[in-house]
Each structure stands twice: as C-alpha cells, then as structure tokens.
UniProtKB/TrEMBL annotation:
The keyword Cytoplasm does not apply. The chain crosses the membrane at residues 142-160, 166-189, 201-219, 231-252. Gene3D superfamilies: MFS general substrate transporter like domains (1.20.1250.20). Its main location: membrane. Keywords: Membrane, Transmembrane, Transmembrane helix. Coiled coil: none annotated. It is a multi-pass membrane protein. It holds the Pfam family Sugar_tr. It is found in: Membrane. GO terms for cellular component: membrane. Belongs to the major facilitator superfamily. Sugar transporter (TC 2.A.1.1) family. This is MFS general substrate transporter. Residues 70-320 form the Major facilitator superfamily (MFS) profile domain. It comes from Bimuria novae-zelandiae CBS 107.79.
C-alpha cells in the first residue's frame, strides 16, 4: 500500500517554532538554520510517518531488505566474538596456547586470559572512535569495507596463530572490527530505514548478533563431543562468514543521508531512487530536501539554554 502525498509538508513552508523573544532568536538563526530547526521539530515530514508498521515494510521493500541484510551481517561478527570468548575451554586450544604447567598439566594463566580480554576491549574503543571519522569523510560503504578488512585480518591471524602473543594481536583486530561494525552498521540502518520501522530494524542488529553467538556455543558443544582437541575447525568456519559479509557489503547501496550531508546531490538522488524504486509516487526531490535539512541539523544542532533576567527575556544562548 503506497503512501499518498497528503502527508507531505513542503519544507519551504515549515514555520519556525515561536520563542518568547523572537527578535533575539532570529538574530541568532539564519534562514537556512530556521528551516533546519523546523525539520528537527517535525514540521517537515517525509510523508510516510502515519502508515502502519507492516504497511511500511510492504511499501519500502528494498529499503527494508537493505536494513535486514546490514543487520544480518552482525551475526557473523557475533559468532566470532563468542567463539573467541569460549574457545579457551577447548582442550586442544589450551594445549596449543598454554602459558603455564602445574602437576604435569598445561593451562592458560589468568593474566594471559585477562590480557586477551583487555586488548579486545581496547580495540573495540579504538574501532568505534576511528571508524567514525572514516564514515563521516568517505561514506558508509567505505566504513563497511574497512570493518570487513579488520574482521578478515583478525580471522587470518587466528588461523595462523600458534602462541598466545599472536592470538593477542588477533584479539586486538577482532575488537576493532566489532567496534567499527557497531558504529557503522547501526548508523547505516538508522539512515536508510523508514521512520516507522527504524527501531525494529535497529533491534535486528542485536537479534542477529545473539543468533550468531548462540550458534557458536552449539558448534563448540558438538565439536567437544566429536573431537575435544580440534580447535581449528571453529576458526575455519569463520571464513564462510567473512565471505558472506563481503557479498552483503558489496551489494548494499550508499546511504543517501550521508551523500546529502556532504553535498553530493546527484549521488544522494541516485541512491534515493535505487532504494525507493518500489515505492509508488515517491518524490525524490522532496525527500532529498528533507534529508539535506536533517543532516544540517545533525551537523549544526542548536541547543538553547535559556536564562531569564528580571524582565523575562532570554539572555543566554549556547550553540553546540
């Protein structure tokens, strides 16, 4: 069921929100800022905010599929992270990476396990922080390729690691990969998903991550019954996930919202047409203007902290 244009409110007609001191507010905000401020307050809508959730999915089939595929890729990373955390119980893994011996038995020292965990957490922080600059400068697709490279490198190192120090490097790359994925994929979904189903699509990320983690434990449990000393098979399985992620990231379109935020009008309209080619009556020009103004709000968000003097006027405005 396609949405009609009756929900649309032209951006040019958006009315700035009133203030107790209009002349001061107008002196701070320029005309373009007033438009963006109106968009931020919901006075310029995409026109599809009032249709039901299921109707939104049926109307925006391609956009929904793109978000689903992006979220599905999180399952592969969920498998890897759960495998890294659980494989330390594998007898073969312990024999290979043992750092201490007691009573003739090899085991992993607590300090070694802690260093792996801490390194992975540090890598996650680095990945989340660093990828944000890459995403803002070069786009979401480049960010996807970067996070895929990090994950691929971690799996490659895991494949050839034979001592705890090399495994430490693998944990660092794995942490950076998951951090980069969280910052990139969640942002991509929030920009591509229709407003009505945006929350549901973002929840799919956690869903597939959990599913990937669940199958890790299933695989390790089955492997433990068959051959408790086989620790390489779970690592080799990850190459299939890496290949699947590559296919998904190659096929996904660029985020039109990012294109609009950096002034790439032609590319933004191109991807808007591609993602919404199945939506009857979709006004690309209007939707581009909405995204352009929304991106302006995100980049130059104005927040007013009001203090009143005895005369009851705004005497302090802070821009962040």
């Amino acid at each position: 069921m396609a949405a009609t244009t009756e929900y649309k409110t032209p951006i040019e007609k958006a009315t700035p929100i009133e203030s107790r001191h209009d002349d001061h507010l107008e002196s701070v905000l320029k005309p373009d800022d007033l438009t963006a401020d109106a968009v931020a307050k919901g006075q310029a809508a995409t026109g599809y905010e009032t249709i039901s959730l299921w109707d939104t999915v049926k109307t925006f089939k391609v956009a929904s599929a793109c978000c689903f595929a992006a979220a599905f890729s999180a399952g592969a990373d969920g498998f890897q992270m759960a495998m890294n955390a659980s494989i330390i119980a594998n007898k073969g893994f312990v024999q290979q990476f043992a750092t201490d011996v007691a009573d003739g038995k090899k085991f992993l020292a607590a300090g070694t396990i802690s260093s792996w965990s801490a390194t992975q957490n540090c890598g996650q922080v680095v990945g989340q922080t660093g990828i944000s600059f890459l995403n803002a400068r070069f786009g979401r697709k480049v960010g996807m390729y970067a996070l895929w490279t990090l994950i691929m490198c971690s799996v490659l190192i895991e494949t050839f690691a034979r001592n705890w120090k090399i495994w430490l490097v693998a944990k660092l790359f794995a942490g950076m990969g998951v951090g980069a994925m969280q910052a990139t994929i969640l942002g991509y979904i929030s920009e591509v998903a229709p407003v009505r189903i945006r929350g549901s699509m973002l929840m799919l990320y956690s869903f597939w991550w959990t599913v990937g983690s669940f199958f890790t434990h299933v695989a390790l449990q089955r492997l433990n019954h068959r051959d408790p000393f086989d620790w390489l098979t779970p690592i080799y399985i990850q190459w299939g996930h890496v290949g699947l992620m590559a296919i998904i990231y190659i096929c996904l379109p660029e985020s039109p919202a990012w294109c609009a935020s950096v002034g790439k009008e032609a590319q933004a309209k191109k991807w808007l047409k591609f993602i919404h080619r199945d939506v009857e009556g979709y006004d690309v020009e209007y939707q581009y203007q909405v995204r352009r103004c929304i991106s302006k709000v995100r980049a130059h968000r104005l927040q007013f902290f009001c203090r009143q003097n005895p005369a009851g006027r705004i005497c302090h405005v802070t821009t962040i």
